[in-house]
Amino acid sequence: MTDTPQETLANLLTETRRFDPPPALAATANVTAEAYEQASADRLGFWEQAARRLHWGTDWEQTLDWTNPPFAKWFIGGKLNVAYNCLDRHVEAGNGDRVAIYWEGEPAGDERVVTYAELLTEVKKAANALTDLGVVAGDRVAIYLPMIPEAAVAMLACARIGATHNVVFGGFSVDALSGRINDATAKVVITADGGYRRGKPSALKPTVDESVALAPSVEKVLVVRRTGEDVAWTDKDVWWHDAVGGASEDHEAQDFDAEHPLFILYTSGTTAKPKGILHTTGGYLTQASYTHHAVFDLKPESDVYWCTADIGWVTGHSYIVYGPLSNGATQVMYEGTPDTPHRGRFWEIVEKYKVTLLYTAPTAIRTFAKWGDDIPAKFDLSSLRILGSVGEPINPEAWIWYRDNIGSGKTPIVDTWWQTETGAMMISPLPGVTSTKPGSAQRPLPGIAADVVDDEGNSVPNGGGGYLVLREPWPSMLRTIWGDDQRFIDTYWSKFDAMYFAGDGAKRDDDGDIWLLGRVDDVMLVSGHNISTTEVESALVSHPKVAESAVVGATDPITGQGIVAFVILRGSVEPDDGLTTELRNHVAAKLGPIAKPRQIMLVPELPKTRSGKIMRRLLRDVAEHRSLGDVTTLQDSAVMDLISQGMDKGKPED
Ligand code: ATP
Ligand code: MG
User: Residue positions of the PTM N6-acetyllysine (predicted)?
Assistant: First the structure.
């Protein structure tokens, strides 16, 4: 710990555990250490080579145009079809019988196996159906579906005809859905009667009906029958099984410009009002495809990959649909929740399909740890060879739990840092190259120029903390915020000159590896020290009784801000009188007295976005006894009542 009061972000946590790649994996890895050298010698040449993994109808003339920053263009003049790259070319190569999707519905026994040839046929029919409904290239189509194969079919059908999709997570309300449909002025909405959640049908169509009534741009609503429950019907509605079922199976994919808009997607809304992030075609697919191949070391002939994200988030776009399918992967897609009908459902699915590559989020990992080690222990998880994490910083102890209990103490873990805005992974270990460190995303991927800088925009030395920035454009970068170029400039490009600022804090350890430290908006200023939420949370989670925690800085008359920690205990732990003191001392022992929480609140749940990320700004409101800010992206509003009541009863400790 340093005593310089003006450091940008303190570096308090030291982690010394290291895990080398398994030798067999390193020997056959898709990407080796050479890639870093190639990319640093010739960054654009490196990305050209990655782009050559795809099929281009017309070659590009120029790799990057960065003459008008921050508006980048990649692969200028190139033309390609995204759906052709994800489907037709695999079938043409003789792999039509390969399974693309093992779909597992939430109700037991509800399953479908979809080959590449079958998926291609469905996408061609859906492309014809959308064309018949009047959709042309450049139109926007909103997609509001459960996790069923039709969600991937709908996205690929849009891509095939050059329509720009706007997927909205199926758990969102009328306000969120109608707002996103209107912002994108979507012409068609694709939805379903409903899906299954927590053991029962959960309707979607009523939310669409109300939203469409508020959205004058919508001409048609295409409805998949999933649950079979009764639905109200309007004259805009068309059944998917009529329109797609009756459509022709012939459809030739036409190529689109590399900079043609592929999709708009709204961020998850952890910090503020969601932003409509625009991604285009050639650069996006290049990086989504390359990173999936490199970071998961995907062997399409033998691997079974499973990403547990919802298609409504960017992870579902890049690592369920575009990355894996462009690489010809076989993957599992699951409709439901991890605890239906029992808390071992995920592990039962891994065992059933012999999943080899698993990609999930820290929020899920901490929940599994809370539920207990005995649950995954009942299943055969020996097929797993690489585990991935995304969405939030992963606490070192959660990382170790994941490796030991899910990865049999053997599998590499790839902690992948990226954002809706970056479109694809940016910082991550490579499983056959990197000696991994629990809790660190480690190194920018080949071709990515990430850095950690201080307030003046200068790189911090090893051991220092600051702001995570990107110094060079990358192929899958957002092109703008839909309809709001000025907000694009203001939000990402105005803090530092000629650098993209991601909003996250980070530090560089003594080896130069990067550790994400949470959002800079959440940083706590305690007695002149800028302390990251992540380090204090990780210290709390390293206590054997703690499953999950969130910390915030609350105004304090003496120290500026005081650290208030909200803690969820592991399932079997009964709190006793001394526990909060014990936890406060534990943090002080790990990080130094400066980071000792002023107050610890034991809570049953934490406020999270619908993608499972902790919303610290709401906890800050509670800790400072303010009325709550915007709660529209909150998963469960009852949680806040429980926490506020507890807060009113609790009192600060000495
Ligand atoms: P909003 O921008 O509206 O507040 P959001 O940032 O939660 O929403 P996403 O694009 O889904 O929306 O999330 C990206 C953010 O998630 C990153 O900026 C970072 O804070 C966090 N994140 C993602 N992966 C990691 C990771 N591996 N380690 C640390 N943080 C991560
Ligand atoms: Mg964000």
Answer: 613
Is the pLDDT at 646 greater than 80, yes or no? Answer: no
Binding residues for CoA: 197-200, 315, 527
The response to whether residue 270 sits with its C-beta less than 6 Å from ligand 1 reads yes
Assess whether the C-beta atom of 422 lies below 6 angstroms from ligand 1.
no
CATH number at residue 291: 3.40.50.12780
Does 419 sit in the ligand 1 pocket, CB within 6 Å? Answer: yes
The residue that leads in pLDDT, 575 or 136, is: 136
Is residue 188 domain-resident? yes
Q: How far is CA 242 from CA 113, 143, 251, in A?
A: 22, 18, 18
> 579: closest CA among 604, 602, 562?
602
How is residue 138 written in tokens? 């450049």
End residue of a domain, out of 506, 533, 556: 506
Nearest-5° Cα angle at 177, 174 to 178: 80
Q: Which residues surround the ion ligand 2 when the cut-off is CB under 5 Å?
A: 267
Q: Which helix (H) or strand (E) holds 560?
A: strand 560-569
- Strand 237-239, strand 220-224: pairing: parallel
Q: What is the pLDDT of residues 189-226, one digit of tens each?
A: 999 999 999 999 999 999 999 999 999 999 999 999 99
Q: Count up the domains in the chain and report the number.
A: 2
Q: What is the pTM of this model?
A: 0.96
Q: Identify the CA nearest to 591 among candidates 537, 523, 512, 525.
A: 537
* Averaged pLDDT for residues 517-538: 95
Domain carrying residue 243: 23-506
